[in-house]
């Protein structure tokens, strides 16, 4: 486990900008490709500006997001688990959870104290300042009685041989660029823009892997799973639109590709260029969050044997149990190729917990192949442009989902080529077409009931009936293999029944029907 790890220092600075970004127009150029020339830079003012820009924008987006802490959808995620406060007698109660502003302040304080600080200055040139991170920031292993960090001397020696630096420049007064340099070869995995109007990070994935290996060497904590070729470039950005109104977004600037082998068999992953891939606008004035997605296709290829694993656990003499995934003795054979199509659409969440989805759709069908033979495909609204609009609203009784024009999901399964390897799977289940439709109305809608919490006795939740009700339109489920169709008309609920006998091999859809709601 990283001590005061680089994840909490250099790379956390980039990661804290979020998981979304868009390139947007740059303040660094004059509309062409040539960047502005470097300006003279002075240490104190540059570090002050960089920290002030980071703090102001981090706190700004936190304040604009305050309304989300009361959201049924996102409130628990954003607030996190509250720490426990205990008295001398061992009586504990939860403390007030950290707010978004608290977290923004903590991150800005950490960067100002450990990274962008004058104590780290190594060289000061007319147009460039170089900081060198000290062992106290990377190799600290707790503190002494006086609060001073206890430095691991071996770690400090490894850091001296593999330095981590930050290079500061500016092309506009008060807008600071920071490039992180790892190791003797000065690998540049992340470059930051700490500007007054935006924070941004450009990450070179291949270089980040090299930087992670350097960090693992410094901390003497080997990292598994990094073997293979990895490339691609991402951009993350947080931009201020106006007071309490921010956009956070991400772009794949160059295709992300990863390839390696598992027991001699190839594994590869690729994600297409997308600029922007997704953007999230958090507007504290209108109390809305709007997400726009326009992703490219994702393709994954892996040996089926990688999925044929069993968890094996063992307990040592101290009573500590460790578990690991072990390949089955007779793993599935074949190479699986998964294609996930590009996804696009807009999702808006408001303070009333109403979620509106506009123009949500796919470029083509999702498919799975084994040794070039398609075994699965999934397509949504294939005859309606593969798009839909929807609105999800919540209440004490559950959630209501309304869609336009319809939901028409078709799943084709043909795993007959694998039937010899699928123990216990009947041939009838290896080939099927499953269809789910909600239609027959200009704006069909369903209600999914909320369940009460289970009693402390461990009983089932008290509300189990009428959990799925058709408010408008017609809902249907069909299976070609079972030659069955379940239909639920408007005003009816989806009812589940028990199998007629334990030995019966009834299709799951044969246990469902439409009927009166309880």
Mean pLDDT: 82
Beta-strand fraction estimate: 35-45%
Number of helices, where a helix is a run of at least 4 consecutive DSSP H or I residues: 7
Report the end-to-end length measured between terminal Cα atoms.
Answer: 53 Å
Morphology call: globular
Oligomer: single chain
- Rg result: 28 Å
- Which residue ranges are poorly predicted, with pLDDT under 50 across at least 5 consecutive positions? 1-31, 75-82, 452-465
Secondary structure class reads mainly beta
Tell me the total number of β-strands: 33
Largest sheet: 25 strands, antiparallel
Key features of this structure:
518 residues; mainly beta; 25-stranded antiparallel beta sheet; two-stranded antiparallel ribbon; 33 strands; disordered N terminus
Explained architecture:
With 518 residues, the protein is mostly beta strands. The chain is built from seven helices and 33 strands. The strands form five sheets. The protein has a 25-stranded antiparallel β-sheet that branches. The protein has a two-stranded antiparallel ribbon with strand order 1-2. Strand 17 (309-315) and strand 18 form a beta hairpin. Helix 2 (43-64) runs antiparallel to helix 4 (100-114). The chain starts with 9 loop residues before the first helix and ends with a strand. The model is unreliable at 1-31, 75-82 and 452-465 (pLDDT under 50).
